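We give its fold:
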Amino acid sequence: MGAIIAFLVAALALLGTPLFAIMGGASELLWMLHDNPTQRYLRFIAPNVMEERFAGSPILVTIPLFTFVGYMMAESRAPDRIVRGAAAFFGWLPGGLAMVCIVASAFFTTLTGGSGVTIVAIGGLLYPALRKQGYPSSYALGLVTVGGSLGLLLPPSLPILVYALVAGIDFNAAFKAGILPGIMIMGFLALHAAYIGNKYKVPRSKPNLKEMGGALWLLKWELGVPVVILGGLGTHLTSLDESAALTAVYIMIVEIYIHKDLSLKKDLPRVAKASLILAGAIILILAMANALINFVVDQRIPGRVLEYMLSLGLTQTWQFLIVLNIFLLLIGMLMEGFSAILVAVPLILPFAARFNLHPFHLAMMFLLNLELAYCAPPLGLNLFIASFRFEKPLVSLYKVVLPFTGILAFGLFLVMYVPSISTVLVDGDIQKALALADQKKEAPREAWLMQCVQEDRSNPRPCTAADKLRFGEDGTKNPYEKAQPVVPVPDQAKTAAPSDDPDDLMKQMMGDTPKGAAEKGKNDSDDLMKEMMGDTPKGAASAVPSARPAADPNDDLMKEMMGEKK
């Protein structure tokens, strides 16, 4: 029955059934066919959806707001202004116009989060310009195709926010972690652009300070978008959802009232409707993915897969990283970006915890795999969009994108095996968490959440060998508790009081000292008996050798009664 259901679900997916329906329906079927009859209720699809971590997340409000910002910019003349500004500052460099395409695509994708929008908006403007300036057709087409996925690692990227929600990591730290890998990938592509510009002797424009100033002045309002978002978050004056709301209002004022590219009555309802349809689809998929995760966790499916992998000899971290990246690349090619995050992240987290991976290292590997999968043959999403937009056969794009996918793969290799590229900007936050915990004299659980992927985020465990030694393997040992002073047990032979127990008293009268009786009491009893028998106790004689006992009138009376004269 399970095999039949799996086949039917796969068939429905291939026929184009919406992803949320696939996930929600599969969750219902799995719970209704549960081995335990007491678990066969549809209500079990709800807990992960209704819990605070998902339903109360500010990211659910942020997604539609940022999507609205991206659509507003795409429908206005903002792409033209972005291209002009990039051309003014980078057009005089070798391969300058190609660098313009790289910077403009990354900036636009960062704000929109959608590769399709970037290819249509930026690629549509720059592809004819690249061809006109002398760049080879294959290079220009490959560049605008890959440009649709640039910027996924740079803040405030929407995929980073969705990943942070699903993985349960801090989105501010995730923004920091993506800066260096994102800039590194853009740098590699810029070096390649300079090489192509010199090879084909592409003409360059001369630096023009006046044009730079004019383009920058024209672009000043769009440049205010990241300032509003990151400035509010960096100064802690606004939360994430508040920053998104301010940005939406800001861009609406800029495009409608300042630049007047859009009409309040004619364009705003259309743009808002289109953006909210996409945002609603993302949130619905998020909810159904969490419902499916509930069953996956209940059945320990990741644990079983991990045990199988370990049984095959997959015990080294480098081996796991290779398998992980192949898996993520396949998922990224078969699914849309947000869907890939929602499906794959819950599956890989238990394995990442087993191999003690850094959470932000894992996040950057995942997102860079997604960036690569967007344009990787044969099923990369960017290939389909570029084929449609520029009216090129899909197969013809496979060859032109290979140099660019090679550059992205090299960047992924560096990120994979040099974790510090992804973690160096987060180390400061980890050190602050460690110092704060030490000041409070408690286990640094917040730091552990940022140091390694946790199997159970509600009960984080130490990540480093030093912390495991200090706090124990499970983190329950508290080294800040002072050891209680050891109170020496007094010598009962010297301090125990005579027992009042009748049994002990009887034994004492019979000459048998109870086990718990005082030694002092025993000696006193023996001395008294010896004295009554006329035998001076040895201890008394030795204690006072020169003293004569005082005469006792009772003793004289006793002797007189016995007929003995005094």
Summary: Residues 133 and 202 are 7 Å apart (CA to CA). Residues 427-471 form one domain. The chain has 29 helices and no strands.
